Amino acid sequence: MTRMNHSDRPFFSWSISDLEKAFEERSTEQDFIEVLAEELVHRQTERARRLEAKVRSVRLRIGGDTPTEHAAAEDQCVLQGQEYVQHPSVDRVEAPMPLVTNVPIQILGAWAALEVLNPQTFGSPHELASKRERALVADFNRGLPWEIGDRGRRDKKIFYHVVLGTIDAARAFAALLDRYVDSRSERPRVKAEAVLASVIVDKNGVLVPDDPVVVSSFAWGLPVALTSDLSELAGWSSVVERLQDGLAKQLRRSGSDGKERPLDHGLIQGAYHWLLSELRLSEAFVRPPRFAIRVFQDFRLRKAPDALLLNSFYLGDLSRAQACFARGDAPRALQLYIGQEKPPIRRDLLRDSAALEDAVAPSSIPSARWPGPGRHPLVLLQQAAVNLALDGRDESGVVAVNGPPGTGKTTLLRDVVAALVTRRAEAMCSFDDPARAFSDSGQRLKLGSESANLYGVNRDLKGFEILVASSNNGAVENISAELPAQSAVASDAGLSYFKALAEELIERPAWGLIAGVLGNASNRARFARKFWWDQEVGLATYLAEAAGTPQWIEEVGQGGAKIRRRPRLVVEASAPSSHSEALKRWEVARAVFRQRSERVSELLSSLEEVRYSVQNLPELAAAASSSRVRRDAASTRVAQLEAGFREALSEEATADIAVKRAQEELTAHDARRPWLLARVFRTVAARRWIAERELLAEVLKIATASRVDCKRVVARLEGECRVAMAAARELALEAEASERAFSAARSTLDEGRARLGDRLVDSEYFERAHDVRHQSVPWCDSVAHQARDELFAAAMEVHKAFIDAAAKPIRSNLAGLMKAMGTAGSSAFGGAKAPLLEEVWATLFLVVPVVSTTFASVERMLGALPPESLGWLLIDEAGQAIPQAAVGAILRCRKAIVVGDPVQIEPVVPLPESLTQTICRRFGVDPDHFNAPEASAQTLADAATSYMAEFLGRQGSRTVGVPLLVHRRCADPMFGVANAVAYQHLMVHAKEPKPSEIANCLGPSRWIDVQGAGHDKWCAQEGEVVLELLRKLADAGASPDLYIISPFRMVESSLSRLLLDSGVLASMTEDPGKWVRERVGTVHTAQGREAEAVIFVLGAPEQDQRGARGWAGGRPNLLNVALTRAQEVVYVVGNRKLWREAGVFGDLHSGMP
Fold first, then answer.
1. Fewer CB near the last or first residue (10 Å), C or N of the chain?
2. Model pLDDT, residue 185
3. How far apart are CA 613 and CA 742, in angstroms?
4. Are residues 959 and 953 in contact, defined by beta-carbon separation less than 8 angstroms?
């Protein structure tokens, strides 16, 4: 994300009181006034606006400013079609702002404070009822329902949610907007009311025994936000229990017989007024109690229904996370996400080719992949993202993936699923008998008249659980509801995994039970009903059969005769009839898997050998050359030594001859020795002989010494020759080995080039053109991909055979989980059974590898699961999620893969930004980094990941996670303009041309210039253009596969009415009302959708609506999303002259005909 540097805001941490005081003292200092003026641009409170006006006046007086045009705040706040007069401001005493420290507990505290002010709102009371049934609303004007003999339903018990007053949400938010000035042109919709408090009573109107009362955090937080220090909002968790206990005491009254009295009007009104007094909440914001909601529950369930959901979905998990940080045992993924731990490295994959090469190494490629339609392989950065996400060196952490529209995010996540399922299959294969992977805990769970043993799951089978979560229901279903579909796999993939059950769950053709859509209570109940209880395809029936108890369905045939037949899943999934039969199938499945796994391992190892050759061939060549030089030098040395040795031997022989000759001459001379008397009398002859002898003796002595020297030289040279020859032999062997290594590497590389072609990743690979490189597939050829596809199929067979052979413990654990999912099951795993909740969830993930939920349902679905009890979290559309939304899911998982795009639609925040920023500052938290909409789950993950990319913009840069760049959805000009405004031209266009029926009818993409008058932001002339376009489509009989979207709700609502009133849709669709609801909306509602065409209706046609147009074009997000919904053509309808001046709409003007 783009980070703001507060070094250029010296007064960032000053409170408004500090600034006001400093202004009074230093208003004559021009430098101070200039810096203060810059700071006040970032402040949005009423006091800041008043101070800004004073500063402007001073700047004009001292010559430091000239009058500028400032957008005036709206005089009224329009919410849900109602107008509310702004409330007068109440000055507060503000403490100095603390320093920004970004301490995790304070970050979580700030988020909790924001969530206190985030109530669950409704437009009409029936929206609080199950399935929104109006008949379930009990109007107090007709009397209290338990007093007038309310009728129940067969086999059902009745309870009531008594609504103890409601808050006028629109009026309350208007007060907040008045206090904290909201400069947004388009504010989020707020429904009419929020529940003040609710109480659960039985059919007699008596409070239920356990936890009967819930109080709204918003009701408590509203007066705090309007009149007190905002840091006090963190105190909700410390007052809620007192408030709820006190309210329950107000409602509980005993009669003369000692029994608790039913509620009556007096008790209800008294409790209502007591609560208002405790909350110090003005009656101007509330409506008194006037209705209850009926709840019908299966008579077999003992526990009362869950309370109405009044407060934020995230408060409980934020409190749990704070406790983890306080204890010092917060999960690593959460530490990274919140910034307490920094990523160990940061490598830019767009600039560091060595990092990217390492990321796509064959040794990092998973052994299995998803066999999608067409079996298309992942391209460069997709494969890098999968490899980095699955990197086994990090057992915990956060991997962020930047996934712009149409770049294959779902395809990437499917490969992650395939890899994790295959890893677990490998772990399963270590068990000779799968039943032994489960250990009896000794705990039994009561299931009606029966009970079930609860089993522990071997730790080697854990850590592979995959939880898919998002703020967007559509995003969740895009993954988890599509994974099981037959259309998600190649037609020849040969996959079948509890196919009949999967088809019942997703209500379309399916290949297998790879994923389940859970989340809210309705989804969980539907899942349990089909997955477990369904007699035809439910797993309870199947597992009973596999455990050895034959299953039959009895029906009444023609003539009243009873017919017995086998359940459909038992037949179609070929359930084993006994454990021994299951074990035989297990051995077959395990053997096939191991054989295919070994084959893939060999293929990937051979590719890694090619990579080794690529990386090491220059070094091997240098080593071979160096070895040759050393070998030749050694040979030369040996030759030189041998020549010297031979010369020394010759000299030695010459010396031997000289000694021999001298010896012989001396001996011959001695033979001529004179007689004794001649020697005695020293005759002349004797003296001559003696002199000659002395000379000959000296010659012999010299010759002998010379021979000794020669022998010494010979001996030395002989030793040196011996050593040199040994060294030469060693160097010759070394040179031979180096040459062989070089030749082998060169041969391997040559074979690799011939086999892989442009898939081979070498230095030349990274010199290819940007678009060519990023569309390439690294390393794996079709043979390797086919083997990986087949291994995934074998992994699914291993799962099926494992479940069959461990049917008994799996059935028991799943029965326990189904109870825990039920209304009566929330306390089923209390006490000694609490640790076993993790085991039964692990068992579900063994059977259904992927489970999905929205963030809003995480706590209610998984609340009791401890931190890091699940393996993997896949977050989709993370750019739309407020950062605190993901805390509960990350808390419970070891590793998070966070996918999204921060330049699509930002998180929707109902509160004014000035209020949310002030709350963050009150907690010492940097709002630019941790406060939505500037921050999202995606931006926090982008900062937490080790591998990233930096997009250089026009004024700064944006840092994201692993980037996906190859776009396959939109034709030009949609792609070109989006690439320019949001992705700095780094995206690669890879869409295949397709015919467009709409383009044939309406013509190519273009901007239809309309210069009309406006009512608010609606321009009737623009509406007429849209009608004309639709009439042309209707006349041509073209399929209306398009969206009509606008930046503004006023335009959306006006268009919807116009289209329905005109009747233009009558010939185009069977249900015009449904078509309008699904196909006409704001850009925000279109996120995650796509169609053949988009009609983008701009609105805001008046000259003085610069603020509205500036809001729409100030950032690339809105335009980026609007354009990338269209696959083939887009028609922009609006005033071109005015809109081309609105920020990024200038790029639209340049890129559109």
1. C
2. 62
3. 9
4. no
pLDDT under 50: residue ranges of the chain = 1-7, 63-93, 823-825
* 434, 806 contact by CB (below 8 A): yes
Are the C-beta atoms of 504 and 530 separated by less than 8 Å?
Answer: yes
CB 1048 within 8 A of CB 184: no
Given this model, what pLDDT does residue 19 score?
Answer: 82
Q: What is the pLDDT of residues 546-597, one digit of tens each?
A: 999 999 998 887 777 888 899 999 999 999 999 999 999 999 999 999 999 9
Amino acid at 960: V
Residues 847 and 917 grouped into a single domain:
yes
Nearest CA to 27 out of 45, 51, 48 is that of 51
Name the one residue in this structure whose structure tokens are 């002898």. 693
Residue 698's CB is within 10 A of a number of other CB atoms, namely 11
Cβ contacts of 928 within 8 Å, gap of 6 or more: 3, 4, 934, 935
pLDDT of 183:
63
The confidence score (pLDDT) of residue 68 equals: 34
**DSSP E strands: which ranges in 182-276?**
193-195, 197-201, 213-215
pLDDT of residue 85: 36
Together in a domain, 1055 and 1114: yes
The CA distance from 821 to 829, in Å, is 11
Strand partners, 286: 167
The tally of domains found in the chain comes to 5
Compute the C-alpha angle 740/745/748, nearest 5°.
Answer: 120
Omega cis (within 30) before 933: yes
Strands 1080-1082, 450-457: pairing is unpaired
Q: How far apart are CA 892 and CA 405, in angstroms?
A: 29
User: What is the CATH classification number for the domain harbouring 1147?
Assistant: 3.40.50.300
Structure tokens at 84: 């509310």
Query: How far is residue 83 CA from its own chain's centroid?
Result: 40
- Domain assignment of residue 973, yes or no: no
Task: Decide if 570 contacts 545 (C-beta within 8 A).
Answer: yes
- The set of residues, in sequence order, having a beta carbon less than 8 Å from that of 176 and lying 6+ positions away, is 117, 222, 225, 226, 911, 912, 915
Element (H, E) at 912: none
pLDDT per residue over 222-270, tens digit each?
A: 999 888 778 889 889 889 999 999 999 999 988 888 889 999 999 999 9
At residue 70, the pLDDT reads 32
DSSP states of 563-606: EEE--HHHHHTT--SSHHHHHHHHHHHHHHHHHHHHHHHHHHHH
Alpha helices (H) in 776-835, listed in sequence order: 782-805, 807-821
Residue 609 placed within a domain: no
- In the beta sheet, which residues pair with residue 402? 900, 963
- Owning domain of residue 1132: 990-1151
Q: Indicate whether 518 and 391 sit together in one domain.
A: yes
